[in-house]
Amino acid sequence: MELQDYFRILWKRGWIIVLMAFITAASAYGFSKMQTPEYKGSTKLLFRPARADWGLQNAAKGLLPSYREFIKKDETADEVIDRLRLDMSRDSLLAKVTTSADEATFAIQIDARDYDTRTAGNIAWTFAQVFKEEQDTWNKHQDIRDQVEVYIAWKQARISLFKPRTKINTLAGGIFGTMVGMLIAFPLEWLESDIVRTAEDVERHVGVAVLGSIPAMTSEEVMPIGAGRKRRWAFLRSLKL
After folding, report:
1. With a cut of 70, which residues of the chain have pLDDT below it?
2. Beta-carbon contacts of residue 26 (< 8 Å; ≥ 6 apart)
3. Which CATH number fits domain 38-163: 3.60.40.10, 3.30.70.1130, 3.50.50.60, 3.40.50.620?
4. CA 16 to CA 198: how far, in whole Å?
5. Which DSSP letter does residue 145 get?
6. Dist. CA 3–CA 50, nearest whole Å
């Protein structure tokens, strides 16, 4: 198929693609609006070695994965539940919390999800605070040259909408509907590829220009066999009367 054939199909059956894109986008938008909003509270921990030593800095970088595990250990979760007086189990709380490490900046971000904005922020902030206190206690038993200090980067947790992401869902729904519409439009065109309806279809199949065509007759112009003879006979009978 040439490029002009694709444009012709899109011009002819583009309404199918547009309709499917609208239906799926509207459905995704409606589904997003029906969901209960869930929010994410975030805070960040910064780590600083006691001295600018290449070996100590690499050691601190290698400790980031273990720090992430310490943040989400059972004892930390229990302490957070006690401090915030949360009505949930340890496993339920840990399922709400995620951590991510950035080795380039020696930082760990703590994210907590909840349907209440304040609770989401408090959970993330308290996890960071409990871990900082434990790290400060650990540093007291270490040589001052081997200590790794930890700081909470932000003064308070940052809140953002976790879901639903209405705009992204609507856009994804529209793209999906466009693909479905194309899967419908092009097979339909292929099924009707052998049907000749216009002079352009003849030229496209035969490859020569159409110089003329026989006009289609209306139902009134089409006369059954013997209809003319019957009309003449009826006319003669009317004259005899």
Report:
1. 1-9, 51-60, 189, 191-241
2. 173
3. 3.30.70.1130
4. 22
5. G
6. 66
In the chain, CATH 3.30.70.1130 covers: 38-163
Cα distances (Å, whole numbers) of residue 216 to 56, 180, 197, 225: 91, 37, 12, 19
State the helix-helix crossing angle for 117-140 and 74-84, rounded to 10 degrees.
130
C-alpha distance from residue 124 to each of 38, 137, 219 (Å): 14, 20, 79
Quick: pLDDT tens for 103-127.
878 899 999 999 999 999 999 999 9
Q: Both tokens of residue 94? A: 């840990």
Q: What pLDDT score was predicted for residue 33?
A: 81
* CA 192 and chain centroid, separation: 35
The SS3 of residue 235 is helix
- Tens digits of per-residue pLDDT, 129-157? 999 999 888 888 877 777 778 889 888 89
